[in-house]
Amino acid sequence: MEFLLLGTPAVRRAGTPLELGGPRQRAVLTMLLLHANQAVSVAQLTEAVWDSPPVSPESNLRTYVAGLRKVLGDRLITRPGHGYQLVVEPGELDLDAFDSLVRQGEEAVEEADAEAAAGFFAEALARWHGTPAAELSAGPLLRAEFTRLQERRLTAVERYAKAALELGRFDDVIDRLRRETAQHPLREELWAQLMLALDRSGRRGEALEAYAAARRHVVDQVGVEPGARLRQLQQVILESRVPSPAALNAHRQLPMDIAEFTGREAELRKLCEPGPHTTVVISAIEGMAGVGKTKLAVRAAHQLVQRYPDVQLWADLHGFDADELPADPAAVLESFLRLLGVPGGQIPESLEARAALYRDRLAGKRALVLLDNAAGEDQVRPLLPGSASCLVLITSRRTLLKLDGVRSLFLDVFTPGEAVALLSRIAGADRIDADREAAVRVAELCGHLPIAVALAAKRLARRPQWTLPDLAAQLERGGVGARGVFDLSYQALPDNQRRLFRLLGLHPGEDVTAESAAALAGLTAYETEDLLETLLDEHLLQQHTPGRYGLHDLLRAYAVEQVMAAEPPPARHLARRRVLDWYVHTSWHAELQLNPVRQLEIGTADPAVHPRTFADRDAALLWCDTERANLVAAIRDAAEHGLAEQCWSLAQCLWDFFNLRKHWADWIDTHTVALAAARSVGDRSAEGRMLITLGIGLREIRRHDEAIECYQQALAIFRAMGDKSRQEPTLNNLGIAYMVVGRVDDALACYEQAAEIARELGDLHTEAVISNNIGLLHADAGRFSQALERYLRSLEIRQEIEDPYSEAILLNNIGEVYRGLLDFPEAVSYVERALEMFRTIGDLYGQAESLDNLGLALDGLGDRRGAEKCWLESVTLFEELGEPKADEVRARL
Length: 893
Description:
The protein is of the alpha/beta class. It is built from 40 helices and 12 strands. The strands form 4 sheets. A 5-stranded parallel sheet has the order 7-8-9-6-10, sandwiched between helices. A 3-stranded antiparallel sheet has the order 1-2-3, with no helix packed on it. It has a two-stranded antiparallel sheet with strand order 4-5.
């Protein structure tokens, strides 16, 4: 037999539909199928069939059961004292098949296999053929069952949409979600997925219209504004910026193509010709510096995008940068995994594990990976996908012979004809055609090197009074090759432009903005932007992203050479200090948005420095994300050049960002450097502070013994200094570490000492934090009354200081304790307050935690339906954040 529940209930034998009787008889069958192979009591069937049951429902039910037995035979059995049971064999019930496919989809999600997940969820949804409640006489219990069943279907829709979005299947998602939002207009996650699909497919206006429609439904029918998720997503789309990882993955990373690309036609055809379909295609462009490897690779990548539309990733590996170490493959993989939607907390520590997860994420995707400036095979090998659907483009000054299956393309300097063609494209065909012989001579003097030819052509284009022989004469005086062209371009600049260009050789990191370059030069951002744009016009700078400027490796080396020759050591030191001050104080303004209650001791910046400020938390996080590589480089640069205070100050300002984004490696590396800097100048206070924040990072990655050692060293320093204000957080963190490793008595002793110091100093914020931690310790040990006493004291303090985030955590903790005390009404009261505060401040993780807690409290009250509603919302949020706890909450349903 075949039993169908996912739509109008039906039974088929050998493909033939069976007659099931009237609406109430079919309602009985539906209830029995929903609890197949289980006894269903008369009371349950009565509540499933009637809103107002007859005087003797048992008699009516016996009639309906008798009618069903005529169709189902001995499948429908009577269980004396227990009710009735319908026997269903494996594979006969479509609901079982649906549940099995959904489970397989969830397993595929856990294994990061979006292709398989989308397939399983789509197949599960294809089992549905209507609305189960139609044509039935359903009582309150059966209506509740239908609601639960519909909830399971909608959850599968949302999971399918999430997987399909990751695969770039926007049209499928949009069509399905338009139907679903029309039928379920109050389901905000459906609207959120529809907005994402529309925005990612380039239909920004329609995405905003979808938000307006969602808001209209919610306001009209419920009387409240949409939730934080929809509001944040609308703001992201309005501002046309990259959303946070929780809202959107960002994996289309190719640099901008250039309009002045010319020549290399044969090489371009070779790179773009189809490769084998049995393995990943790897093409390596090899050649000397300045020969145009990157420009060719970028042009080829843009032409190949249609063939590899799912993902495009790019990384500069800095294989030959004189001022920067070659990129660590593990760090590059971390960046790629984040772009591919892996939350920081789920990125493995080891290079091998990261590489495996990266290959898994790209499996089956049509992905293009551009790896620029590779130092060698060992750096590249972990970054290679494993799927035949992927292509990798690599540029390097070395031959990469040891990479299996690599197709090498050696790029030499331009031919004379290509060099003259580039001159013509930039300087104008009329001028070049007027004196081809001189043009050929200019190309020769540039060594036919593309970067030198482009610079010479730009010099000619900007001087209409010059002739080609004039340019050739200038080059002959300066010398042959790139150096001669660099000199010609640099020496022709006005003094202010020359000064900025050479100072850029001191800038830490990969690129500059007008603001950071302004600090370097002691100018305003407005003045500096004009100078940078002029240098860009002169081809002395390049631009991969609007508003950000970089130096070619050869030009960076030339700028360093010029700044060392032209700027005396005091001037170089002052410029370097200004740009580092700018990074420190701008990071401090970002930190004020990320953690408003945190207090740091930051030195005074140079008066010429104008740090950036941020309107809100999202703007601060976006800046930190964008500047991350430069910020890490700035810490190292400060340490290398004796600016110890800037080194540890910047490290301190960044640790909340590193924690939020789970940049563990950056956190540990930068704080280790900053700790060494503090020790090198004998600053004991800074040494102790860096030991605390380094210890927190070590604790986060479960290196507990090392964390405890850091805290103990810091505590010894602050006790020797008599600095109680620093002993207090040190003791608190030491207590947390002890608690994690099970040293409960040691943890309690540390907390009590810290609390005593906090009371002595009148530090209400820290006293509240420590009271909360002591409460946690008691709660973990099952001492709920003692935990409640500590929590309530902490809450009393919290209400005197403005810290909604900490107060929300505390309210949720109090709710948990009341659950432990079996006082479920009080638990609900406190957790609902916590949930409201988390929603107000837009903390998705806090919402997910408190929804789970609220569900447990409601379940304790006997409100199973309310509990499951909370858990479903909690699971959705945890899944959106990539948190494994989603599985734990899902198991409650």
